[in-house]
Design brief:
The complex is a heterodimer. By secondary structure, chain A is an alpha/beta fold. In chain A, helix 6 crosses helix 7. Chain A has two domains: 256 residues, Spore Coat Polysaccharide Biosynthesis Protein SpsA, Chain A (Alpha-Beta Complex), CATH 3.90.550.10; 129 residues, UDP N-Acetylglucosamine Acyltransferase, domain 1. In chain A, 18% of the residues lie in helices and 27% in strands. Chain B has eight helices and 32 strands. In chain B, the strands form seven sheets. A seven-stranded mixed β-sheet of chain B has the order 5-4-1-6-11-8-12. In chain B, strands 15-18-21-24-27-30-32 form a seven-stranded parallel β-sheet, with no helix packed on it. Chain B has two domains: 250 residues, Spore Coat Polysaccharide Biosynthesis Protein SpsA, Chain A, CATH 3.90.550; 136 residues, 3 Solenoid (UDP N-Acetylglucosamine Acyltransferase, domain 1). Chain B is an alpha/beta fold. Classes of the chains: A alpha/beta, B alpha/beta. Chains A and B meet through strand 14, strand 15, strand 16 and strand 19 of A and strand 14, strand 15, strand 16 and strand 19 of B.
């Protein structure tokens, strides 16, 4: 018989990532579109659903509207019912003072009442920012098996990349499954170990509450990686690493976002949405109301993902198209990711472009990398830009959201930033 | 604020639609999949939603399970809420006897308690069988303006088709003065679409007159015309009764052609994405490096590695490398093996076609032997879950019954007009 859930999941979804800049101008990182119909946060939410964990809180602070809209009732992930639910927990004013979340750990600390109310056996804290497929139940089982205070999911990264992550030194207590964490460094300049934390933490509630409280009272920084894990190690708590060997999409730069999107393509894609059981909320942006994808007499689509509601009359290669994208005759879109409702007019050519929602490309506009040039960086457009007819925009350009058409000179050179 | 609608909707969804052959073997006609993501009844229900109507009874009789499953709680058509609702009304036993619905009017008569439980000013009676887009609110306004007892949705059809319909002759004011049900000799080209607005009290009284009168078109409408106020409401846009295999195929193909007048998205037609087929679980359509697609509609969850021309694919269809699909309608989760050739075929759910098999080849004029009136234009039908063996050749106007497996095929060659 199914009983009241014993695990409470909390998803950290408040962050904005500076390097993703124009894509996170009006939304948190977790609400960035990904995969031709979904949002980044759908990956952890689908993982939770597929792991049978359906009591979830979402901690959100930065421009939460898009996220709140996306989560809806939670029914999309089956998180509505007697013991199933998603609560969105924004910052709130207390008796004494009004506090914004001062960091990831502080956002959980400010919701200690919520944790006490649910009284779980373990608290699973996740980042809403990453693209991966994981059965959290296996992590929780390992955590309980080890009677750990904290079990963190980690995966090996090249030593040269370790400075970008929080890295742990995990021993071989349980071989390839996991082991005890003895040392941990947040973004070390000279890494000595390379098990990167995926920001998937399973806590014993009393250990979590005690450490959060100490942190809140004694420290000036309030982050899980930088503050909470070192504090638990200093307190000689039982910290374990759970070794993950699957795909992990870390999308903190535009180039990484683009590469991760390309990992959806090909005959054996690294990201297999079907097998991963990804679900999104089809009520959001009324995705459900679109008719099937329509391909005209002269349309061509190769090696691409295209969702319902697109109309393809031109050529699409190695690209990911979200609902409502129209590609007119003679237009060519290659190596690109076009978010909801982009319009590409006749004869326009897009190469290695990431374009946010509601943008349009005028007739014969040429945007992005030039095949004959060595410059092959991604050009990114913020939402609601209307590129005039015939405009030429180079590679590695950044176009801020919602600019007036006068902002686009005849030619925008490689690497230019238009704001 | 929108006032609560004063019109109650009754949707007649009991029709067998037997000319759709094996497509209706396990489901009622309104539940037949259509246009990739939809079912036929989605058109009527979306029209109801888009007209601002909020209370619906669905009268079912024939194989209602698939339909009930599809309707769910009605939330897909915004029919769940404080003043909103959709109820399935199957036949049931009364205090005296157990009665199947004996006709359209009889079905409504047996649900008088439902009508009384939802007090209304008008009752809109629709069929769940048709593909069209119509604003019922305008029709109801016209009904009120004329102070009519009954208003009937009518459209002009070719005179040679009038024998399939109820036919009305109107005077200058739009009042119907004469009525012929399925006339053999055409005297008018104005046909009933099976859409009626009744004054609620008038309908209750009319139904009460004579229990032997079981059909609207045959009994009640002619009687009402002879003595009461019955008006025609003219409709001039796309409307199809997709009751035959040929009409079903043609209406699907119409979606592919600009200017044909049918556009589910522009019409605001909504499927139930949570019902069976579960569009909710489907990822974007995936196109391989060798995919070639033209003039087609492809739904989410499809995987295209071959060639698709002039066809409609429902969610989850997988097309192998080198396979060619032409002028066909493929319903959910069909799998087409490498190098297979599919021409002028309707496939129900989960059909599997083996590698290098050919379905639809030969003379289109060789009609189906068992059902010559169903399949005579070249279309071949593959039933739910059928599996065509590797290398098989299936002709025109053929039927492969649901669930047939490779060993059920008498030989690898199924001639035109044959049934497996």
């Amino acid at each position: 018989m199914k009983q009241k859930p014993t695990t409470l999941a909390m998803v950290l979804a408040g962050g904005r990532v500076d390097e993703l800049n124009v894509l996170t101008y009006y939304r948190p990182k977790s609400a960035v579109p990904f995969g031709g119909f979904a949002r980044v946060i759908d990956f952890p939410l689908s993982n939770l659903m597929n792991s049978g964990l359906e009591q979830v809180a979402i901690l959100s602070q930065f421009r939460s509207f898009s996220l709140i809209n996306h989560i809806g009732s939670g029914a999309a992930w089956d998180m509505i019912g007697r013991y199933r639910g998603i609560s969105i927990l924004p910052p709130s004013t207390g008796h004494a003072s009004s506090n914004w979340y001062r960091g990831s750990a502080d956002s959980v600390y400010q919701n200690i009442d919520f944790i006490r109310y649910h009284n779980p056996d373990c608290v699973l804290i996740l980042s809403g920012d990453h693209i991966y497929h994981m059965n959290y139940q296996a992590l929780i089982d390992y955590h309980k098996d080890k009677d750990a205070d904290l079990t963190m999911a980690c995966l090996p990264v090249p030593m040269t990349a370790a400075h970008r992550f929080g890295v742990a030194d995990i021993d071989d207590e349980d071989g390839a499954v996991g082991g005890r964490v003895w040392r941990y460094k947040e973004k070390p300049q000279q890494a000595k170990f390379n098990w990167a934390s995926m920001t998937v933490f399973c806590f014993k509630p009393e250990a979590l509450l005690k450490t959060l409280t100490d942190n809140a009272q004694e420290d000036t920084s309030f982050e899980f990686g930088k503050d909470i894990i070192p504090r638990m190690l200093a307190d000689q708590r039982r910290v374990y690493g759970y070794k993950f060997d699957g795909y992990w999409g870390y999308t903190r730069t535009i180039e990484e976002y683009w590469q991760t999107s390309m990992d959806l393509l090909g005959p054996q894609p690294k990201i297999d949405l079907e097998r991963w059981g990804l679900r999104t909320n089809l009520e959001h942006r009324d995705i459900r109301d679109y008719q099937p994808l329509k391909i005209g007499d002269h349309g061509t689509i190769r090696d691409s993902l295209v969702y319902n509601g697109c109309v393809i009359e031109g050529t699409v290669e190695r690209s990911v198209l979200f609902p409502g994208v129209h590609i007119k005759p003679g237009a060519v879109v290659r190596d690109s990711v076009l978010f909801f409702n982009n319009q590409v007019q006749a004869g326009a050519r897009l190469t290695k472009v990431v374009s946010d929602v509601n943008s349009s490309f005028g007739e014969d506009a040429v945007v992005g990398a030039n095949e004959s040039s060595s410059e092959q960086e991604v050009t990114v457009l913020g939402w609601d830009n209307h590129i005039p007819k015939g405009t030429v925009i180079g590679s590695d350009c950044t176009i801020y959201p919602h600019l007036r058409p006068e902002k686009f000179g005849r030619t925008i050179k490689n690497g230019e930033i238009i704001r | 604020m929108n006032p609560i609608s004063k019109t109650l909707v009754l949707l007649l969804a009991g029709g067998v639609g037997s000319r759709l052959n094996i497509l209706v073997q396990s489901r009622a006609k309104p539940a037949v999949p259509f246009g990739g993501l939809y079912r036929i009844i989605d058109f009527s229900l979306s029209n109801v939603m888009n007209s601002g109507l909020t209370q619906v009874g669905v009268l079912t009789q024939y194989k209602p399970l698939s339909l009930m499953n599809h309707l769910g709680n009605g939330a897909a058509w915004d029919l769940a809420g404080r003043s909103r609702g959709i109820k399935i009304l199957p036949p049931r036993t009364g205090s005296k006897n157990s009665d199947w619905y004996k006709g359209t009017a009889d079905a409504v008569r047996q649900n008088i308690d439902f009508i009384k439980a939802h007090p209304s000013q008008e009752i809109l009676i629709l069929s769940g069988d048709h593909i069209y887009h119509m604003d019922f609110d305008q029709m109801i306004q016209a009904h009120r303006q004329k102070k009519a007892d009954i208003t009937i949705g009518m459209m002009v059809v070719p005179k040679e088709d009038i024998h399939q319909f109820g036919a009305g002759i109107t005077n200058d004011e739009g009042r119907i003065v004469e009525w012929e049900e399925k006339p053999k000799v055409a005297r008018t080209d104005l046909a009933s679409m099976g859409i009626y607005v009744f004054d609620s009290n008038y309908l209750l009284a009319l139904l009460n007159e004579n229990r032997e009168e079981v059909d609207f078109g045959m009994h009640l409408i002619p009687k009402a015309i002879s003595r009461d106020n019955v008006y025609a409401y003219r409709f001039n846009d796309y409307w199809r009764d997709v009751g035959t295999v040929q009409a079903y195929w043609q209406a699907n193909m119409d979606i592919l052609h600009e200017g044909s007048g049918i556009s589910p998205e522009a019409w605001g037609i909504r499927p139930n994405v949570e019902a069976s087929g579960r569009m909710a679980d489907r990822c974007p359509a995936r196109f391989g490096a060798k995919a070639l697609v033209s003039n087609s509609m492809i739904s989410s969850g499809c995987e295209i590695n071959g060639e698709v021309i002039n066809s409609i694919l429902s969610p989850g269809v997988v097309v192998g490398e080198g396979a060619v699909i032409r002028d066909s309608v493929l319903i959910d989760d069909c799998q087409i093996g490498e190098g297979a050739l599919i021409d002028l075929v309707i496939m129900d759910k989960r059909v599997r076609v083996g590698r290098h098999a050919v379905v639809g080849s030969g003379d289109k004029r060789t009609v189906n032997v068992a059902h010559p009136s169903h399949l005579y234009t070249g279309i071949t039908l593959l039933g739910k879950g059928a599996q065509v063996p590797d290398g098989a050749v299936v002709g025109r106007n053929c039927i492969v019954n649901p669930g047939r497996l490779p060993h059920d095929f008498p030989s690898l060659h199924v001639g035109s007009g044959m049934t497996v």
